[in-house]
Design brief:
The chain is mainly alpha-helical and about 150 residues long. The protein has one domain. The protein is built from 5 helices and no strands. The two termini are about 20 Å apart.
Protein backbone atom coordinates (compact mmCIF):
# COMPACT_ATOMS: atom_id res chain seq x y z
CA UNK A 1 0.00 0.00 0.00
CA UNK A 2 1.30 3.40 -0.89
CA UNK A 3 1.66 6.22 1.61
CA UNK A 4 -0.83 8.16 -0.48
CA UNK A 5 -3.74 5.75 0.13
CA UNK A 6 -4.59 6.96 3.62
CA UNK A 7 -4.72 10.71 2.81
CA UNK A 8 -6.69 10.05 -0.40
CA UNK A 9 -9.15 7.91 1.57
CA UNK A 10 -9.69 10.59 4.20
CA UNK A 11 -9.96 13.37 1.63
CA UNK A 12 -12.54 11.49 -0.46
CA UNK A 13 -14.48 10.48 2.66
CA UNK A 14 -14.56 14.05 3.95
CA UNK A 15 -15.53 15.50 0.56
CA UNK A 16 -18.41 13.05 0.32
CA UNK A 17 -19.44 13.83 3.89
CA UNK A 18 -19.49 17.56 3.16
CA UNK A 19 -21.49 17.14 -0.06
CA UNK A 20 -24.15 14.88 1.44
CA UNK A 21 -24.49 16.77 4.72
CA UNK A 22 -24.89 20.01 2.76
CA UNK A 23 -27.41 18.47 0.35
CA UNK A 24 -29.38 16.79 3.15
CA UNK A 25 -29.62 19.95 5.24
CA UNK A 26 -30.71 22.12 2.29
CA UNK A 27 -33.36 19.66 1.11
CA UNK A 28 -34.52 18.94 4.65
CA UNK A 29 -35.21 22.59 5.40
CA UNK A 30 -37.87 22.84 2.69
CA UNK A 31 -39.38 19.41 2.00
CA UNK A 32 -42.36 20.89 0.13
CA UNK A 33 -40.11 22.59 -2.42
CA UNK A 34 -38.04 19.42 -2.66
CA UNK A 35 -41.20 17.35 -3.26
CA UNK A 36 -41.97 19.70 -6.15
CA UNK A 37 -38.50 19.10 -7.59
CA UNK A 38 -38.99 15.33 -7.28
CA UNK A 39 -42.38 15.65 -9.01
CA UNK A 40 -40.73 17.51 -11.92
CA UNK A 41 -38.94 14.29 -12.86
CA UNK A 42 -42.35 12.81 -13.78
CA UNK A 43 -41.32 9.33 -12.67
CA UNK A 44 -43.03 8.60 -9.34
CA UNK A 45 -46.69 8.52 -8.37
CA UNK A 46 -47.84 11.77 -6.72
CA UNK A 47 -47.77 10.54 -3.08
CA UNK A 48 -44.32 9.03 -3.49
CA UNK A 49 -42.86 12.44 -4.29
CA UNK A 50 -43.65 13.50 -0.73
CA UNK A 51 -42.32 10.24 0.69
CA UNK A 52 -39.01 10.77 -1.11
CA UNK A 53 -38.89 14.41 -0.01
CA UNK A 54 -39.56 13.42 3.59
CA UNK A 55 -36.94 10.66 3.81
CA UNK A 56 -34.13 11.27 1.31
CA UNK A 57 -32.63 14.37 2.97
CA UNK A 58 -32.33 12.59 6.31
CA UNK A 59 -30.81 9.51 4.72
CA UNK A 60 -28.23 11.70 2.97
CA UNK A 61 -27.56 13.55 6.22
CA UNK A 62 -27.15 10.33 8.20
CA UNK A 63 -24.76 8.83 5.64
CA UNK A 64 -22.82 12.10 5.47
CA UNK A 65 -22.46 12.18 9.26
CA UNK A 66 -21.28 8.57 9.33
CA UNK A 67 -18.65 9.41 6.72
CA UNK A 68 -17.62 12.51 8.65
CA UNK A 69 -17.23 10.51 11.86
CA UNK A 70 -15.47 7.66 10.01
CA UNK A 71 -17.98 5.19 11.47
CA UNK A 72 -19.85 2.52 9.50
CA UNK A 73 -18.24 3.87 6.34
CA UNK A 74 -18.91 0.86 4.15
CA UNK A 75 -22.68 0.75 4.79
CA UNK A 76 -22.89 4.52 4.28
CA UNK A 77 -20.99 4.24 0.98
CA UNK A 78 -23.23 1.38 -0.19
CA UNK A 79 -26.39 3.40 0.52
CA UNK A 80 -25.00 6.53 -1.15
CA UNK A 81 -23.75 4.48 -4.12
CA UNK A 82 -27.26 3.06 -4.61
CA UNK A 83 -28.89 6.47 -4.27
CA UNK A 84 -26.38 7.96 -6.68
CA UNK A 85 -27.03 5.26 -9.28
CA UNK A 86 -30.80 5.75 -9.02
CA UNK A 87 -30.38 9.48 -9.36
CA UNK A 88 -28.10 9.06 -12.39
CA UNK A 89 -30.75 6.86 -14.01
CA UNK A 90 -33.39 9.52 -13.30
CA UNK A 91 -31.16 12.21 -14.82
CA UNK A 92 -30.52 10.04 -17.88
CA UNK A 93 -34.28 9.60 -18.21
CA UNK A 94 -34.70 13.39 -18.21
CA UNK A 95 -32.07 13.80 -20.90
CA UNK A 96 -33.58 11.06 -23.09
CA UNK A 97 -37.10 12.50 -22.70
CA UNK A 98 -35.86 16.02 -23.42
CA UNK A 99 -37.05 17.45 -20.10
CA UNK A 100 -34.88 20.37 -18.99
CA UNK A 101 -35.48 21.00 -15.29
CA UNK A 102 -33.34 21.91 -12.32
CA UNK A 103 -32.05 18.73 -10.74
CA UNK A 104 -33.05 19.90 -7.23
CA UNK A 105 -29.93 18.33 -5.76
CA UNK A 106 -28.73 21.05 -3.46
CA UNK A 107 -31.22 23.87 -3.18
CA UNK A 108 -34.74 23.06 -4.33
CA UNK A 109 -35.99 26.65 -4.30
CA UNK A 110 -32.92 28.38 -5.73
CA UNK A 111 -32.98 30.83 -8.63
CA UNK A 112 -29.95 29.25 -10.32
CA UNK A 113 -30.58 25.99 -12.08
CA UNK A 114 -28.41 22.93 -12.70
CA UNK A 115 -29.12 21.15 -15.96
CA UNK A 116 -29.63 17.38 -15.96
CA UNK A 117 -26.42 16.89 -17.97
CA UNK A 118 -24.34 18.99 -15.54
CA UNK A 119 -25.86 17.09 -12.60
CA UNK A 120 -25.09 13.78 -14.34
CA UNK A 121 -21.42 14.74 -14.70
CA UNK A 122 -21.28 15.87 -11.07
CA UNK A 123 -22.80 12.58 -9.98
CA UNK A 124 -20.26 10.65 -12.04
CA UNK A 125 -17.57 12.44 -10.03
CA UNK A 126 -19.35 11.56 -6.78
CA UNK A 127 -19.56 7.96 -7.96
CA UNK A 128 -15.78 7.92 -8.45
CA UNK A 129 -15.30 9.30 -4.94
CA UNK A 130 -17.64 6.64 -3.55
CA UNK A 131 -15.76 3.86 -5.32
CA UNK A 132 -12.39 5.16 -4.20
CA UNK A 133 -13.63 5.50 -0.61
CA UNK A 134 -14.96 1.94 -0.69
CA UNK A 135 -11.78 0.47 -2.17
CA UNK A 136 -9.42 2.39 0.06
CA UNK A 137 -11.47 1.63 3.18
CA UNK A 138 -11.32 -2.03 2.24
CA UNK A 139 -7.53 -1.84 1.90
CA UNK A 140 -7.01 0.14 5.12
CA UNK A 141 -9.28 -1.91 7.40
CA UNK A 142 -9.67 -5.64 8.03
CA UNK A 143 -12.78 -7.19 6.47
CA UNK A 144 -14.59 -7.55 9.82
CA UNK A 145 -14.55 -3.79 10.59
CA UNK A 146 -16.83 -1.22 8.97
Amino acid sequence: MTRLAKPVYHLSRLLLAAVFIYAGVLKGTDPIAFAGQVANYQILPYAWNYLVAATLPYLELLCGLLLLLNKRVRPAVVVLFGLNLVFMLALTSLIVRGIDIDCGCFNPGAESKTSPLAALWRDAGLLLLLVSTWLLRYRLQPADKN
